[in-house]
């Protein structure tokens, strides 16, 4: 049975025992030796496949190449075997924190993997690169890796359910540092006290502003979660050596809540598993069929539907208004007041956070492509720009309520579209969740994850390599230590040579 943890700020003269601190509760959950349910294990396998798919598709992109080069410029640390780097030969290892960095950037670069949205945003698959890197470095089997990943997903999703970061312009990776540290703690079987210190350090070093997702969005958007994973590994290392962290990190009068979030009078109710309760948070998350911000997924599907109905010619459109949630309106909609969201020369990172652009292209093309839909030529097409600039968003109270609903049967990430044509005709339609969502028209299942991997990996991996990775991933809980160390993807000869090879300090 889920237990709610009451979280509030404590003055320094109010002694808060460690047992009452959120970081301690997280550590206790991570140290709980509870087993992993079969359906959770199956979903973890799906997400390992999903991460590898989107990483494969990004191997030749500049930010991924830069992160990979940084990682490869660091030798394997002396305390283990090192970890693999996506795209590289299996024997080419680096230190685990740098592998987590490189692989984390590869996973996040295309904004194409799993998501969980509640009080805040998250991509819980970001837990996989750091936890897997540590597993390969220290030498654990697949069953231990599954337990660690179950914890990482659980903690991040529980924090996201309760604590809003974006309202205070704090980047959502502040929930990732603690979850990855907790997952590594489970993986290694660390004691509660060690995990507690690691969680505190990981949070302390991963709080940053949301400017990385505002205005002219830079390549750091992909690096931010990788940095959080890297910091989590380093926090665990320090905690294992007996080093301590700021305490209480969440509740202190100069802590995260008091000064970065809702202030000294704030309180939150954080749902956490009870002692002995299975960690099932991953089952409430969902992946992406389309390479765009999650809140765009349903809108792409609705645009695809409208395109297929051929009810109107986009050239005849006078205006399109997307009535949607507060989050969608202010983060990826016209409510953000970011002129870059209407700029044909904007970066890919900006365009995948512009629902006016995404809806225009999907309406014209009847679908979405992770490369073709973002090219400068596609963004600059005259008829697209004309349609794009006719699209706005509007906050709708009912869609905002449904966005925040805790009832999975009514929680929604879409909205209602109103298309007004030049002749005065009005066309309306709506969608609540993406087609690939568990409650959508075509929920993603194992076959869909495998198909996504094959589609994205085919240009850069050999057929034999695709089959090799899938065979390992689908046996994840049974893998030996050596097989866990092979859980990576190796690019075809010459693929990485076509990527930029920037030189830096290292």
TrEMBL record:
Any Pfam family: MmgE_PrpD_N
Family designation: Belongs to the PrpD family.
Origin species: Microbacterium aurantiacum
Enzyme Commission numbers on file: 4.2.1.79
UniProtKB keywords: Lyase
MmgE/PrpD N-terminal domain sequence ranges: 21-268
Protein name: 2-methylcitrate dehydratase
Organism domain of life: Bacteria
Subunit-structure text: Monomer.
Domain (MmgE/PrpD C-terminal) ranges: 290-475
Top-level enzyme category: lyase
Molecular functions (GO terms): 2-methylcitrate dehydratase activity
Catalytic reactions on record: (2S,3S)-2-methylcitrate = 2-methyl-cis-aconitate + H2O
Entries under Gene3D superfamilies matching the protein: 2-methylcitrate dehydratase PrpD (1.10.4100.10)
């Amino acid at each position: 049975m889920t237990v709610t943890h009451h979280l509030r700020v404590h003055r320094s003269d109010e002694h808060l025992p460690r047992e009452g601190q959120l970081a301690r509760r997280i550590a206790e959950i991570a140290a709980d030796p509870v087993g992993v349910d079969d359906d959770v294990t199956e979903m973890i396998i799906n997400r390992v496949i999903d991460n590898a798919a989107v990483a494969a598709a990004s191997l030749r992109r500049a930010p991924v190449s830069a992160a990979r080069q940084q990682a490869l410029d660091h030798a394997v640390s002396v305390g283990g075997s090192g970890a693999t780097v996506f795209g590289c030969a299996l024997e080419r290892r680096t230190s685990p924190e740098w592998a987590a960095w490189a692989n984390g950037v590869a996973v996040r670069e295309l904004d194409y993997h799993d998501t969980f949205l509640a009080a805040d945003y998250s991509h819980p698959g970001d837990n996989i690169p750091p936890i897997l890197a540590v597993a390969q470095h220290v030498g654990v089997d697949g069953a231990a890796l599954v337990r660690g990943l179950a914890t990482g997903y659980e903690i991040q999703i529980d924090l996201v359910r309760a604590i809003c970061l974006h309202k205070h312009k704090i980047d959502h990776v502040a929930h990732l540092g603690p979850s990855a540290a907790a997952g590594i703690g489970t993986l290694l079987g660390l004691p509660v006290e060690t995990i507690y210190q690691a969680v505190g350090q990981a949070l302390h070093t991963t709080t940053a502003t949301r400017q990385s997702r505002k205005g002219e969005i830079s390549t750091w958007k992909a690096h931010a979660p990788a940095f959080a994973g890297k910091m989590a590994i380093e926090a665990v290392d320090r905690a294992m050596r007996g080093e301590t962290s700021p305490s209480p990190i969440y509740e202190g009068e100069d802590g995260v809540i008091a000064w970065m979030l809702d202030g000294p009078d704030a309180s939150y109710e954080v749902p956490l598993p009870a002692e002995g309760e299975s960690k099932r948070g991953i089952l409430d998350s969902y992946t992406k069929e389309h390479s765009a911000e999650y809140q765009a997924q349903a809108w792409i599907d609705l645009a695809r539907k409208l395109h297929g109905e051929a009810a109107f010619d986009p050239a005849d459109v006078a205006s399109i208004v997307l009535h949607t949630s507060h989050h969608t309106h202010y983060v990826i909609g016209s409510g953000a007041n970011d002129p870059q969201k209407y700029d044909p020369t904007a970066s890919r990172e900006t365009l995948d956070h512009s629902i006016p652009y995404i809806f225009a292209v999907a309406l014209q093309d009847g679908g979405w492509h992770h490369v073709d839909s973002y090219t400068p030529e596609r963004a600059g097409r005259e008829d697209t720009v004309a349609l794009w600039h006719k699209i706005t968003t509007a906050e709708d109270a009912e869609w905002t309520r449904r966005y925040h609903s805790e009832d999975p049967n009514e929680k929604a990430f879409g909205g209602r579209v109103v298309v007004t044509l030049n002749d005065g005709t009005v066309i309306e339609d709506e969608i609540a969740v993406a087609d690939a969502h568990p409650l959508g028209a075509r929920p993603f299942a194992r076959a869909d994850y495998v198909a996504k991997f094959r589609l994205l990996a085919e240009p850069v991996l050999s057929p034999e390599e695709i089959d090799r990775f899938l065979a390992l991933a689908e046996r994840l809980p049974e893998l030996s230590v050596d097989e866990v160390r092979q859980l990576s993807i190796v690019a075809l000869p010459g693929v990485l040579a076509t990527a930029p090879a920037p030189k830096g300090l290292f």
